[in-house]
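Lecture notes, unit on protein representations.

Consider one protein chain, 345 amino acids long.
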Amino acid sequence: MQLKTSRIPAAALLAGLFLAGALPAIAQPAAVNTAQSTTTTQELQKPLATPGTTSDNGSSIPLLYADEPEDVGTVQALQPRARFKYFNVAFDQQLYHSNNPTLAPGNKLGSDISVTTLQASVQSQASEWIDGWDGQARAGVRFQSYWYGVFSGRNEVITGAPIKDSDFTTISPYVEATLRNGDWYSTLGLRYSSYDNNNANADGTFYQEYVPYGTLGYQWNLAAGKTIQFQYDGDWRKTNTPSGGLLPTGWNDRSDQALSIIYSDIINNHWIIQPSYRIMWSPYTNDQRHRNDIYNTVSLLAAYYFNEDLSVRAFTSYEWRSSSEPGNNYENWDLGAGLSFSLSF
């Protein structure tokens, strides 16, 4: 089994929650940061079909490092002419402790957060879309369920409410296209997300967003199994925060612009160690606001792959946010573990 490197390098692992019954006021619900960061963490650890040789069915045989064909020759598929696998279903379970689950300035109370993720997708075969660039289209839907205080206490009161009241779910259909040219890669996509709980309003939806997004990255192969990736991420978020008319539509509209660097070290074809750093600038784009946030995140992830479809991981991160709006600076530290399983057919 050849271990693959991650698809979207980025430091991640923010943590937070939306306190039920509390007006989301001038800031986006903290649950939005939690879901965004948890998903990034999972994608950081997810295997990637890196540039390699191609089997008769058009699927990529991943390389451990750039010069592998020169060392061992062309890699042949174990089952030539095997049917291309268009569909994928995935399950991920993550449990971590946050020392600031409310993302509040000066908060000293921590909580455990359990995240269950289910995802289904369909993809096309890779083919040359632009001269020198191979392209692949994908569409899918992701569902996530967040439970707070799993071991630390479901009834613990943090920032004025029992932590269990902050449980929420998200559902996110998306479409995207990935392009690759040697060590360069790019992604363009569109995603819709709905955030729901039983404490927001009558239909349970407390936040919605439409997000066109894109990435551009370069993977620098240092040696066998050792790479450094540099990546730019950008998006624009058109949002709606249902709150009985107390907030105008689009109050939390913003753009995220991020730069990431991640080092990956594959050990014995089963272990991968990934330290990373990410800086993100988030200017709010609503005409009535003049807010700018800066996020800095450092993280360390260690994953063990039993095979290409089953893996476990441990991770930790520290993040701090500086905001131009008073009362929105915070610091947060996370420590946790996760399990991932996927099936293609």
